[in-house]
Amino acid sequence: MARPLRIEFAGACYHVINRGNYRRNLFCETGAAEAFERTLAEAATSYAWRIHAYVVMRNHFHLAVELTEPNLSEGMKWLQGTWIRRYNGFRRIVGRPFQGRYKAILAEPGHVFGQICHYIHLNPVRAGVVAPAEAIKYPWSSLPKWTDRKRPAWLCPATVLAQAGGLPDTRAGWTQYQTYLEFLATDVEMKRELVAKRLSQGWCLGQRSFKTEFREDQKRKGADLDLIRFGGLNANELKSEREELWEERIVALAKAARVELNKLGARKSDPQKVLLAAALRQSTSVSNAWLSQRLSMGEPASASQFIRRFRLTEKGRAAVDRILSRVKT
Questions:
Q1: How, if at all, do strands 13-19 and 60-66 pair?
Q2: What is d(CA 118, CA 285) in angstroms, rounded to the nearest whole number?
Q3: Alpha-carbon dihedral of residues 76, 77, 78, 79, nearest 10 degrees?
Q4: Which position has the higher pLDDT, 199 or 15?
Q5: How do the domains of the chain map onto residue ranges?
Q6: Residue 282 CB: number of other CB atoms within 10 A?
Q7: Contacts of 71 (CB under 8 A, 6+ apart)
Q8: Rounded average pLDDT over 70-82
Q9: How far apart are the first and last CA of the chain?
């Protein structure tokens, strides 16, 4: 039976998990966990991943990954394959360390993805390796890296801080986050929110509306058309081709909306900018980074916020629908 295709698109968020074959201990030997962290850093840099949280346990790992281009399968193949070659080569052994294909669960950005990050950071606590108040002392996790002056660029704190009450990205903010994790680990009601099976099973984590909208979005985009245009391209070619598609699309949307792209307002939240960004987001897999740069909307997170607020209004949704009805997909 053929394996199901991975759902991959720019901006997609995932809870990625894999375990040792027969649940064997993979990362207990000296240097194994360190080597995995180094390999993860290489993969995140090469494939432009945003890692919102990770942990390496004795026999498995968890990653909270956000894509900037559709390359999860390619990147995971490199990450696991490279670490396996290094692991087996150093120990002069052969065989398959992991139990098989990794699990990648699509996650709704925001609250749900934040829960996954907290769940990942609390893995050592649930396993009894460290006490709730000492979660930061577990070394093979993103948690102790947040306050490091040399924190790597691929580690993204936005979701963790936002979903812990909008904390600042400062040493004081991260101290508050540790207190928040301790609360999640000890409060009965909060512990129920972070149930392992609920955050580690299924194909998609999120509200019913998110899953429904995602399915409808995929229908609108048409997988066959993507395969024709993007099949067989390497990572650099794929990125370039997608950016070219987004540019074609935004020009068409601007024409339909009677907006001159070279005369947009200076404000980051200019209504015409937000309208075009919302329409492009609804009809393609465009990234926040590309939108924010192309339309001068500030940081990628700002573009995302402007779009979300716009689409929450009935007037905004209607405006987007009107433009899209005038543009051939």
A1: antiparallel
A2: 27
A3: 40
A4: 15
A5: 13-211, 222-325
A6: 18
A7: 8, 47, 48, 235, 238
A8: 92
A9: 33
Grade residue 241 by pLDDT with cuts at 50, 70 and 90.
low
Tell me the one-letter amino acid at 131.
Answer: A
Residue-wise burial string across 228-255, b where 16 or more C-beta atoms lie within 10 A, e elsewhere: eeeeeeebeebbeebbebbeebbebbbe
Backbone angles phi, psi at 65, to 5 degrees: -115, 135
Cβ(178)–Cβ(125) below 8 Å: no
pLDDT at 168: 96
Q: Is 301 exposed, middle or buried (0-12, 13-18, 19+ CB in 10 A)?
A: middle
Q: What's the pLDDT score for residue 22?
A: 54
Q: CA dihedral defined by 277, 281, 285, 287, rounded to 10 degrees?
A: 40
Rg (CA), the chain: 21
CATH entry 3.30.70.1290 includes domain 13-211: yes
3-state percent breakdown (helix, strand, coil) of the chain, nearest 5? 55, 10, 35
pLDDT in tens, 100-148: 778 888 899 999 999 999 999 999 999 999 999 999 999 999 999 999 9
Q: Return contacts of 286-293, CB within 8 angstroms, 24+ apart.
A: 286/10, 286/11, 286/246, 286/249, 287/10, 287/11, 287/68, 287/69, 288/11, 289/68, 290/10, 290/243, 290/246
Q: What is the pTM of this model?
A: 0.65
Assigned token pair, 304: 């995302």
Q: Which two tokens stand for residue 98?
A: 């992991």
Contacts of 238 (CB under 8 A, 6+ apart): 69, 70, 71, 230
Given a cut of 60, whether residue 4 has pLDDT beyond it is no
Q: What percent of the chain has pLDDT over 90?
A: 57
